[in-house]
Design a protein that fits this description.
Number of domains: 1
CATH architecture: 3-Layer(aba) Sandwich
Number of helices: 9
Largest sheet: 4 strands, mixed
Shape: globular
CATH class: Alpha Beta
Order of helices and strands: EHEEHHEHHHHHEEH
CATH topology: Glutaredoxin
Structural class: alpha+beta
Radius of gyration: 17 Å
Number of strands: 6
CATH superfamily: Glutaredoxin
Distance between the termini: 17 Å
Strand order of the largest sheet: 2-1-5-6
Length: about 210
Amino acid sequence: MTTLDIYSDPICPWCYIGKSRLDAAMEIRPDHGFEISWHPFMLNPDMPPEGMDRRDYLEAKFGSQKAVVEAYLPVQKAATAGGLPIDLGRIGRTPSTLDAHRLIHWAGLEGRQSAVVSLLFRAYFAEGADIGARAILLAVAETAGMDGKVVARLLDSGADTDDIRAQDADVRGRGLRGVPAFVIAGQHVVAGAQEVPFWLQIIDELAGRA
């Protein structure tokens, strides 16, 4: 097995697209041999717990509605080209992803990380759900096969909040400025939403087929 550590945020559109491309490659090469672990990177580490209005957030970030449209046009094109469900117009709030990262962490203890990550991406980008909301996170957890009552207690307890923030700060301190970022076998860093042929080449090289 080859470790593949992925740094991502569930509100990052290129992380959503990057995962779909990696998934497509792994479907083509079911013997890919990757052992995947997801790690936190918060695009907005200072976002208040309740999040903020999506339009206000985007206009503050990009300066104008026109700039927002221009910034997201490549996202929409890439998602459409990959057959990936995305409906940016349905997103009403930009959430804090701290609790979503906590859920991803707990899912990792049960071997359900990739399922939870997929469900969070779909909830946010295809359904416009507020993935900072407790009810949405519980629904994601239960859909992925986790115990909703246990997850509810963990969310309410604040468990692992400091750890997620520390991991986010640590990876920033080591120079990570954007996601997605992939670390292959603990040493080779790949940045960005790579295309399917790239991942097929990597898989074949690791298997000695290239």
